[in-house]
Amino acid sequence: MPVVLRRYIADHWRGRHSLARSFWINFAMPGAGVLYLERFMRLPIDQPPPAGTAMATGMFFAVQLVLFGWQAVGVLRACDRSLVGYGSIMVVWGAQAGVVLGAVLTAISIYFSLLPFFPVPPSEDRVAMAERLWASRYAITMSDGGSTVHINGSFERGITEAFQAIVDRHGGATRVILNSEGGSVHEGRRIARLIESRGLHTHVDGICKSACATAFAGGAMRTLGAGGRLGFHRFALDHATPMSYFDVEAEQRKELDYFASRGIKAEFLRRVFERPPDDIWLPTPAELLAAGVVHRIE
């Protein structure tokens, strides 16, 4: 470590910097940067952390604790020096309050980020409650004597199993009519594969966005009603913060590869993920036909 940097670190620790430098340069700015980076280190609480990611996360928070200790001690000692030098008591109180707030935010951040390392097995009641909640967000029904499957609502966990069960139970399904604003990317992809493996046709009369559009692409024959629309946008994470081992770009490339395997043209694929997650691209029926997304308008 360079001598200048070692001296700077030591001077802050001993409270030799001005209170303004200690608080804003050495405490607030690095603290905000660490809290921002911490968002990318969080793990989903419903999955066991991979060994490499777990180790990196643990080391990150060990460094975070050491850094916060150095920052806080330096600011508090600078507060003492400021008072001795007849500095403003209000400024000192403000700096001390900032240290307390920083300690609270750091503790909360570490607590929630370390939850995956100490998982609590969900009770049967909680699992059943979650499954009922997911199932309440979609409906899968049959019509036309069991030849047509209707998928309505959000693509939630468990929808693929429910879809497969009803198709297997009736046995004579040939077409799937989709109506959904989207949902889980993984469920949309799983349903698409299942539709493809069964040789089912897909059809949209209303709206079919995001994960639903992926499921639609699995159809052997893909048709669109007069008022049907397909929507596309970039992926978004369900968790409040990004997961360090979930590569959104890689997942989107998988989606594009699947669309390409279904005969959808490259010119169209370049626009699929142009819109942000809170927006939507609704291609015209003519664009969908030209790109091979839809085979026929009914």
Give an overview in words.
- This protein is an alpha/beta fold and 298 residues long.
- The chain is 55% helix and 12% strand.
- The chain has eleven helices and seven strands.
- It has helices spanning 3-13, 19-38, 51-84, 89-114, 124-135, 159-170, 185-198, 211-217, 248-261, 266-272, 285-291, and strands at residues 138-143, 148-153, 175-180, 201-209, 222-224, 229-231, 296-297.
- Strands 1, 2, 3, 4, 5, 6 and 7 form a seven-stranded mixed sheet that branches.
- Helix 7 links the parallel strand 3 and strand 4.
- Helix 2 (19-38) runs antiparallel to helix 3 (51-84) and helix 7 (185-198) packs parallel to helix 8.
- The protein is elongated and about 85 Å long.
- The protein starts with a helix and ends with a strand.
- The model is unreliable at 239-245 (pLDDT under 50).
Features:
alpha/beta
Secondary-structure map:
Blueprint: H1 3-13, H2 19-38, H3 51-84, H4 89-114, H5 124-135, E1 138-143, E2 148-153, H6 159-170, E3 175-180, H7 185-198, E4 201-209, H8 211-217, E5 222-224, E6 229-231, H9 248-261, H10 266-272, H11 285-291, E7 296-297
Parallel strand pairs: 2-3, 3-4, 4-5, 4-6, 5-7
Antiparallel strand pairs: 1-2
pLDDT average, as an integer? 88
Q: Tally the helices: what do you get?
A: 11
Oligomer: single chain
Helix content: 55-70%
Element string (H = helix, E = strand): HHHHHEEHEHEHEEHHHE
User: What's the gyration radius in Å?
Assistant: 27 Å
Number of DSSP E strands? 7
Q: Which spans of ≥5 residues are poorly predicted at pLDDT below 50?
A: 239-245
The 3D shape can be described as elongated
User: Which band does the percent of strand residues land in?
Assistant: 5-15%
Distance between the terminal alpha carbons, to the nearest Å?
71 Å
* Class computed from helices, strands and strand pairing: alpha/beta
